[in-house]
Design brief:
Layout lengths: L9 H14 L5 H7 L7 H10 L7 H8 L4 H7 L3 H4 L2 H20 L1 H4 L2 H14 L8 H7 L7 H27 L3 H10 L6 H7 L4 H13 L11 H17 L1 H7 L1 H20 L12
Helix pairs in contact: 1-11, 1-17, 2-7, 4-5, 9-11, 9-16, 9-17, 10-11, 11-15, 12-14
Length: about 290
């Protein structure tokens, strides 16, 4: 049994303030604006292309597998057709331009050009050195991309690497727990931390019937009660899922060390607070809805 040198949940806390710096791009107008000249205007197509481009000219099967929470039919509606509008390399370049404009808009020029930004980028890239490719397809694809020179874009790139590294591990944990995509979404939302049903149903291709059927299955397993609230067993399962995800995602933060992880959490906490305050996310995107 390995012993961590980090305080309990230090990596999870760091991830919680790093991830929004990456994921805000999927709610911002910047990526859609960059892809519009290519004829990519459907919001789902924008998201799928922007996140999947590092995988190359892939079809819907690969993306359904690595994204996990999307209905395959929705993915197949846009892939591989989107690559006829813009090659993956063009999308990757557009995505970086969009990240630049988004961060400048949400954080302001002073923060983007600050010493704190340079320090945060250095620390996040150092943490990313501890990530591993085997069994982590989405992380591995992004890890093959060059690191941008500008510190704010280097931080965005590192946040992307750390997000996808944790996400790949989390999907393995969900598989082990026997939760299918909709069950995972329902149980996460029931915990009060996941995306609201309104947003899931509007963006992931599932229907209300799929959601209700997943809730029934979770009730049958004793994980939700009659009102859809987590049971004691359901709460315990979510805690186990997060703890196991923490274990699989410990390497980057162990590599960075306790002091570096704490400093990165402090710096990115300030950046994320500013971004959220500037309207980075719709107010109803998270929670039980």
């Amino acid at each position: 049994m390995t012993t961590s040198s980090l305080p309990a949940r230090a990596g999870r806390r760091c991830h919680a303030v790093l991830n929004p710096l990456h994921s805000a791009l999927y709610f911002a107008p910047d990526l859609a604006r960059e892809l519009a000249p290519y004829g990519i205007e459907d919001p789902t197509a924008v998201y799928l292309a922007g996140r999947a481009a590092p995988l190359g000219r892939v079809g819907p099967g690969v993306v359904t597998a690595v994204f996990h929470s999307f209905h395959h039919d929705l993915v197949a509606r846009h892939l591989p057709a989107v690559w006829e509008s813009a090659a993956p390399g063009a999308v990757i370049a557009a995505r970086l331009r969009a990240a630049d404009s988004m961060l400048r808009r949400l954080l302001g020029e002073e923060a983007v050009e600050s010493g704190e930004m340079t320090e945060a980028a250095r620390l996040a890239l150092r943490a990313a050195e501890g990530c591993v490719r085997p069994g982590r397809p989405l992380y591995a694809a992004h890890a093959d991309l060059p690191v941008p020179e500008a510190p704010h874009l280097a931080l965005w790139h590192a946040a992307t690497l750390l997000r996808e590294h944790r996400g790949d591990g989390h999907l393995a944990v969900l598989q082990h727990a026997g939760l299918d995509p909709v069950e995972a979404l329902v149980s996460h939302t029931a915990s009060g931390h996941g995306m609201s049903p309104k947003w899931v149903l509007a963006t992931r291709g599932w229907h209300r019937g799929d959601w209700d059927a997943a809730r029934d299955r979770l009730r049958g397993r004793g994980l939700l009660d009659a009102t859809g609230e987590p049971t004691e067993a359901g709460t315990a399962l979510r805690k186990e899922l997060e703890a196991e995800t923490d274990r699989l995602d410990a390497a980057p933060y162990e590599h960075l060390g306790a002091a570096g992880t704490a400093r990165l959490t402090e710096l990115c906490g300030a950046f994320t607070t500013a971004a959220v305050g500037a309207g980075a996310f719709p107010p109803d995107v998270f929670g039980r809805g």
